[in-house]
Write a structure and sequence with these properties.
It is built from 12 helices and 14 strands. It is α/β, with parallel strands linked by helices. A hairpin with a 5-residue loop joins strand 5 and strand 6. GO terms for molecular function: N-carbamoylputrescine amidase activity.
């Protein structure tokens, strides 16, 4: 017979929306960490009546990231800023977690992994109040046109041999005294699959670091960032805490490149708190895990108990974006290199009739168009060639 669950008291969750500084070396890393630690000191101290137990930080809060155009980093540029999880950078956050008896989650860590030394991973983490990293997650849906981090999918066979290939290995959830916590990073939240895997593994709170740019829609009337993540929370009947940059200090970016709008969304998809501007801020909200668990006990409009999986298997039987595109010894060198596999993807989605070409165009034309755009961008220096 199973044991009764233990009650989880309400607690305060904090989402930090910081300024991020980007540079070519570790000087910016120290500056960013100093700022984050000061904001943790402030926000934990301010919420003393209902103590803070969880802090969520954005993607690339420590090292920043570059994009196409002037300033695009190649693989070497990113590797110069890479850290390991046993180094002093993560160690500072572990000390903060232990000092305040809190969990700290963040993402976009440019991580060097000893098992795959020729590349870096975009890594999210959760640190426990014992001062130890209790969960690490390597971003799965890395959009091909941004960031040179390796997805587990890019080296799926090798990765699975080292870290495991089960759904619980790839999309881990940790059971804690403040609920079952999972994390996904930025582009992971654009489509349903990663959050669904976390929900399948039991996540009650999804910590969601992002570096969501205005070109992706962070403000009304589009605000893609909010409406998609409300859907992810609703679909999985879980809290979702999304953290974005406030402002950025980088010579090639506007200050509001990733213009805030961090939020805390509840298990019905309701936005409880939001920082509706591009500036530094900390938002906070009580988290009630017992209320979530009671909500999940009802059958009416329960988004899990009515799921009928058999009719959807064909969607995933065959690869769309194929795995193992960047095996050991062959990491992507630059963004243009990383986008090369998309030719086969375009041939597939147009070839099977899922997408229809514009008038007068063929399936082959659509794959060729992608390559022509890359070459044109390289010709005028908008994408790197080296």
């Amino acid at each position: 017979m199973s044991q009764p669950s233990k009650k989880i008291e309400k607690y305060t969750a904090l989402v930090i929306q910081p300024q991020v500084t980007i540079s070519d070396d570790h000087s910016a890393v120290r500056k960013n960490l100093d700022r984050i630690c000061n904001l943790i000191d402030f926000s934990v101290g301010y919420h003393w009546e209902l103590p803070a137990r969880l802090v969520v930080l954005p993607e690339y809060f420590m090292q920043g990231v570059t994009t196409p155009g002037k300033g695009e980093d190649g693989l070497d540029g990113f590797m110069k800023k890479a850290v390991t999880f046993d180094g002093p950078e993560i160690g500072r956050l572990c000390e903060k977690a232990k000092e305040y008896n809190i969990y700290i989650s963040g993402g976009g860590i440019i991580e060097r992994v000893p098992e795959f030394p020729d590349r870096w991973f975009n890594t999210a983490f959760i640190i426990g109040p014992n001062g130890k990293v209790i969960l690490k997650y390597h971003k799965w849906h890395i959009n091909a046109s941004l960031g040179l981090g390796t997805s587990p999918h890019d080296i799926l066979d090798e990765y699975s041999e080292v870290f495991g290939g089960d759904i619980k290995d790839l999309f881990p959830v940790v059971d804690t005294d403040i609920g079952k916590l999972g994390t996904m990073t930025c582009h992971d939240g654009c489509t349903p699959e990663v959050s669904r895997a976390l929900g399948y593994n039991g996540a009650e709170v999804i910590c969601h670091p992002g570096a969501i740019q205005e070109v992706e829609g962070v403000n009304e009337p589009w605000d893609f960032w909010t409406f998609t993540r409300r859907t992810r929370a609703h679909d999985n009947m879980c809290y979702l805490l999304g953290s974005n940059w406030g402002t950025v200090d980088h010579k090639f970016y506007p200050k509001a490149f990733c213009p805030g709008h961090s939020f805390i969304i509840d298990y019905t998809g309701l936005v409880l708190r939001r920082a509706d501007y591009p500036e530094e801020q900390v938002i906070s909200c009580p988290i009630d895990i017992e209320s979530l668990r009671e909500h999940r006990s009802r059958c009416n409009h329960n988004t899990w108990v009515d799921v009928r999986t058999e009719g959807f298997r064909q969607i995933y039987e065959n690869p769309i974006y194929p795995p193992n595109q960047f095996p050991s010894g062959r990491p992507p060198r630059n963004l243009a290199d990383k986008m090369k596999p998309l030719r086969e993807v375009f041939l597939d989605v147009y070839g099977r009739g899922q997408f229809t070409p514009p008038a007068g165009q063929t399936v082959e034309d659509m794959a060729n168009l992608h390559e022509k755009r890359i070459r044109a961008a390289q010709k005028i220096g908008l994408l790197r060639e080296d």
